[in-house]
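Course assignment 3, question 2. Fill in each field.
Student: A.L.
Task: Predict the tertiary structure for the chain below.
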Amino acid sequence: MRIFTRRLLLGGWLGAWAVLAWLSWSPASLPGGMSDKTVHFLVYFLMSGAAFSFSRSHGGLALVALATFLLSAVLEFGQSFFPYRRFDYADLLANGGGTLAGWLLASLILAVAMRSSERSGISPRSS
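Answer field:
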């Protein structure tokens, strides 16, 4: 993958964080009575799992997963400063579970990509 494409994907991921911060700190209600824990899990699963699109090493994925969880904690704690939101340990646990699941999926995808590129003689870092 070209470096420009990876940077573009990284920029999109960072932009998603800005949207997530806005949504985390604004008054909101979930459509259709969906569980907020499910939403927390899925959002952070996607944020952590999307890292395979711009990270090309297992160490890089682990750093992104750690950053994802730490940022989720900052956003969750930040909710305590808004009168219409509150900090919730269960939300933080759902964030962590989603982050872990996303990291595991991204690691699996990266391992498969690295294995297939080794067989074809193409370096995943340069492709």
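Instructor remarks: The mean pLDDT is 88. DSSP finds four helices and no strands in the chain.
Grade: pending
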